[in-house]
Design a protein that fits this description.
The chain has 443 residues and is α/β, with parallel strands linked by helices. It folds into two domains: 42-71 and 327-442, Aspartate Aminotransferase, domain 1 (Alpha-Beta Complex), CATH 3.90.1150.10; 84-325, Type I PLP-dependent aspartate aminotransferase-like (Major domain) (Aspartate Aminotransferase, domain 2). It contains 17 helices and 14 strands. The strands form three sheets. The chain has a seven-stranded mixed beta sheet with strand order 4-10-9-8-7-5-6, sandwiched between helices. Strands 1-2-3-12 form a four-stranded mixed beta sheet, with helices on one face. A three-stranded antiparallel beta sheet has the order 11-14-13, with helices on one face. Strand 13 and strand 14 form a beta hairpin. Helix 5 packs antiparallel against helix 14 (310-325), helix 7 runs parallel beside helix 8 (163-174) and helix 16 crosses helix 17. The longest helix is centred in the last third of the chain and has 20 residues, at 327-346. The model is unreliable at 5-11 and 439-443 (pLDDT under 50).
């Protein structure tokens, strides 16, 4: 089987000669032999470590495989997922409009007053002239990069940028564009990459886009936004910040990591998703009016996609209203965050450099040990948290990722610290040693 990716659908003489000489592989045979870094664990991990099914209403206590668990894996930062006003608004929106309205892409027939109202409110909240709604964060970021950057432009980016940023950069490079990466939060190297980028665009006549994150979602540390925007004094570039985990959690009002550093005005494009603090679906990009207007009329992922359904838009308006008007939601979140992180650090746990609610717990061990720890936490202690392993972290590191929320209690925190101390002692005693990844589904 041949998967043709040529611009010309006809196979010319040169291609025909090559095909005769090459062994033709069935593209499905290829993927059956190589299941990928996660897929190779499918038989032992599906439904447990990967694609687990949490049941019940979104809350700190849910059910997993019939047992109640204390869950630390939901990005419901300020507890809006089951806030009574949010649930009421969601239900009323669905009852009034259904999930179909509005029909069509916004550029054709899917535009509404409510979509514009949400965009105006978001722009005002994050201190930008205009904002544009996106159907999804991942898809949106890829499309933003694709729309802004042509083959003559150069992207400079942090090495630990989210996968959506990386995929957007891959597309940029596939069309002939250039990019330079700097080691995570290494501003000296960022400056060096900007020197390279400047030389490049002086030859091509293009521009430079620097991309980083406000809060890095795995390790919880902050992008050095203040130091990056300070480089504008020396270099000519624009800055795009992905603040998915900072929006609603960081800054005096919750307007994000730029507000936290006092440099929101220096961020040229501010991006966030509704999937975290807003507990919804969708995303937005905010910036200067003329730039947002350009994206609105040129982003293929939005031009050729159905508009966000009305219940989601109306629900997002209510979520944003609560985020803006009820500071106790964020205050409760940080009370839980400080109690959890201080307690873990006091007991000798390595949390890295997190300065956000994202709480990574780094342990020494291999993947089999990590899976055994997760199984013990879930089966013996009733604690559900995510495991992060190689290639996201080094081979000898296990990362347990905890997401505290407004909905958690001090009792939840204290119980978790107690359990983690016991697990830490078991790990040190070699109780989790194994040569193979366990098979929880058979137990």
């Amino acid at each position: 089987m041949i998967l043709c990716i040529c611009y010309d659908c006809k196979i010319d003489y040169f291609c025909a000669v090559l095909i005769k000489k090459l062994i033709i592989v069935d593209i499905f045979d290829k993927i059956r032999k190589d299941r990928g870094p996660f897929g190779k664990y499918q038989k032992v991990g599906h439904g447990y470590f990967m694609f687990p099914k949490l049941e019940g209403e979104i809350a700190p206590h849910m059910k997993f495989r019939g047992k109640e668990v204390l869950t630390w894996s939901l990005n419901n930062y300020i507890g809006l997922a089951n806030h009574p006003e949010v649930r009421k608004t969601d239900a009323e929106g669905a009852k009034k409009y259904g999930m179909a309205a509005p029909m069509g892409a916004r550029i054709m027939s899917g535009q509404t007053v409510k979509h514009e109202e949400l965009e105006n409110n978001l722009a005002e909240f994050v201190g930008k002239e205009n904002a544009f709604l996106l159907n999804y964060g991942y898809q949106g970021m890829i499309s933003i990069i694709q729309t802004l950057c042509g083959r003559n432009d150069v992207i400079v980016y942090d090495s630990e940028s989210h996968a959506c940023i990386m995929d957007g950069i891959f597309l940029h490079k596939a069309t002939g564009g250039k990019s330079f990466v700097f080691p995570h939060n290494d501003i000296a190297r960022c400056e060096k990459m900007l020197e390279f980028a400047t030389k490049r665009v002086q030859e091509t006549g293009g521009g430079i886009l620097v991309i980083t994150e406000g809060v890095f979602g795995m390790a919880g540390d902050l992008g050095k936004l203040d130091e990056i925007v300070a480089l504008k004094k020396k270099f000519s570039f624009r800055c795009l910040v992905d603040d998915a985990h900072g929006f609603g959690t960081m800054g005096k009002t919750g307007a994000g990591t730029g507000e936290h550093f006092g440099v929101q005005n220096e961020i040229d494009l501010y991006f966030s998703t509704f999937a975290k603090a807003m507990a919804g679906i969708g995303a937005f990009i905010a910036g200067k009016e003329d730039v947002i207007d350009y994206l609105m009329y040129n982003m293929r992922s939005q031009t050729f996609a159905k508009s966000l359904p009305m219940p989601m838009v109306i629900g997002a308006l209510k979520r944003l209203e609560l985020l803006r008007t009820d500071p106790t939601l964020r205050e409760k979140l940080w009370k839980i965050v400080h109690r959890l992180q201080k307690g873990l650090r006091k007991n000798g746990f390595n949390l890295g450099d997190t300065e956000s609610p994202v709480t990574p717990v780094f342990l020494k061990g291999n993947i089999p040990e990590g899976t055994n720890i997760v199984m013990d936490l879930r089966e013996s202690y009733g604690i559900f948290c995510s495991i992060v392993a190689y290639p996201v972290v080094p081979k000898d590191v296990i990362m347990l990722r905890i997401i505290p929320t407004t909905a958690h209690t001090i009792e939840d925190v204290d119980y978790t610290i107690k359990c983690f101390k016991e697990v830490q002692a078991k790990l040190a005693a070699g109780k989790y040693q194994s040569d193979t990844v366990g098979s929880p589904l058979s137990q």
